[in-house]
Write a structure and sequence with these properties.
Layout (H helix, E strand, L loop, with lengths): L10 E5 L5 E5 L6 E4 L3 E5 L3 E9 L7 E7 L5 E8 L3 E8 L3 E11 L2 E12 L14 E3 L8 H6 E3 L3 E2 L3 H7 L9 E4 L2 E4 L1 H11 L10 E3 L3 E2 L10 E9 L12 E7 L2 E4 L1 E2 L10 E5 L15 E9 L15 E2 L1 E4 L11 H26 L1
Parallel strand pairs: 4-10, 12-18, 21-22
Antiparallel strand pairs: 1-2, 3-5, 5-8, 6-9, 7-8, 9-10, 11-18, 13-17, 14-15, 16-25, 17-24, 18-23, 19-20, 19-25, 22-23
């Protein structure tokens, strides 16, 4: 017979292999919390979720979990959540250094805790973001601008076309079907066509196909509300495809014909007058002005006025059509290719003038 009904609350009975019930004092599991790892390396500027397991907590127990960082200027606790068996803490690496992340479990009037040492490194051991990512239309984010700017600038998602024949028609036959091709499922301008147009500009050094990143040919929906307004279109572009160290150095060319193009102008702010301009933005809609990281995704925003020179559908219908490319060639120095010859003549003239100095001196004696 099991003697449990005759035992005090702090005792229990258990039938052993000898067939007898053995009585012993109950051993209750105390609540505890434990990180899955004692140490963690977190790249600066990145976030990571850290999990701690919880044991010994019952449904009738009042308990709570509170995370803290010994050096918040190094590691910031962004958010946390917990249940009966685990706690998940999201941390952010603010600055290079070391901090102790502590998760404190409170139950009743008692506490217990666990630590994880987090080291924030200067850079990620593996490059963040995709290595090969084609320019992709995204919803434009205009950010914080005045109401008069919002009235003039109309963000629209670009609509790409997978059929070169339809794309050629959409852009008003500025290019023939033969001058277009398909890449990543979208119609683009053939690199050799862009090269010819770029070299005709006369403002860039010799452009080759490797200097060209073609953006998908696009249109935007025709809307009465967008008539005569400036349409804003954004592409998500990998930093390496911007082919520049800083946003102001990025070169985006509008293809206007088989051998005709014009560069967009860089804008450091969004104003009412944005036709034929571009800017580079972060994902939150703010303009990016720092050094471009080749492994980071940015939004390249283009601005085209409905019915303007860069709108190739040729109509004031609230829609714009566009083939554009990013160029990696450097801007040509003033004076063009003749600059080298002029420099050589300048040096020769200087040498001749120096050689003439002692002759004049002797003549004066």
């Amino acid at each position: 017979m099991d003697p449990w009904e005759y035992l005090k609350d702090e005792y229990e009975s258990k039938k052993e292999t000898d067939g007898l019930y053995h009585v012993r004092r109950k051993t209750e599991e105390k609540p505890s919390i434990k990180f899955e790892q004692k140490e963690l390396t977190l790249p600066k500027g990145e976030t990571k979720e850290i999990t701690a397991t919880i044991s010994g907590v019952t449904e009738d127990m009042v308990f709570g979990v509170r995370p803290s960082s010994s050096s918040p200027e190094v590691v910031e606790v962004k958010s946390f959540s917990y249940g009966y068996d685990s706690a998940t803490i999201t941390v952010y690496g603010q600055n290079v250094g070391e901090s102790v992340l502590t998760a404190t479990l409170t139950y009743g009037d008692k506490t217990t805790s666990a630590d994880c040492i987090i080291t924030v490194s200067g850079s990620s051991p593996t490059p963040p973001g995709p290595i090969d990512y084609p320019p992709t239309p995204v919803d434009p984010v205009i950010g914080n601008v005045s109401e008069d700017v919002k009235a003039e600038i109309k963000p629209e998602r670009a609509v790409t076309e997978g059929d070169p024949a339809k794309a050629a028609k959409n852009i008003g036959d500025a290019l023939t079907v033969e001058q277009l091709t398909i890449k990543d499922g979208n119609t683009i301008v053939k690199p050799e066509v862009a090269v010819k147009a770029a070299n005709k500009l006369g403002t860039l050094s010799s452009v080759t196909s490797k200097d060209v990143v073609a953006l998908p040919v696009f249109t935007t929906p025709a809307k009465d509300a967008d008539k005569d307004k400036t349409i804003m279109i954004s592409y998500e572009v990998l930093g390496s495809d911007l082919k520049a160290k800083k946003p102001a150095d990025v070169k985006v060319m509008k293809i206007l014909g088989a051998e005709k193009g014009e560069l967009f102008t860089y804008a450091s702010a969004i104003t009412k007058n944005m036709d034929k301009k571009f800017t580079v933005m972060k994902k939150d809609g703010t303009i990016f002005t720092g050094e471009i990281d080749g492994h980071t995704l940015y939004d390249l925003a283009l601005f085209i006025k409905d019915g303007g020179k860069f709108d190739l559908d040729g109509k004031k219908d609230g829609a714009v059509a566009d083939p554009s490319v990013i160029l990696g060639a450097e801007k040509r120095a003033p004076g063009g290719s003749s600059g080298g010859c002029n420099a050589g003549l300048g040096v020769l003239a200087l040498l001749l003038s120096l050689a003439a100095i002692p002759l004049v001196y002797r003549r004066k004696k």
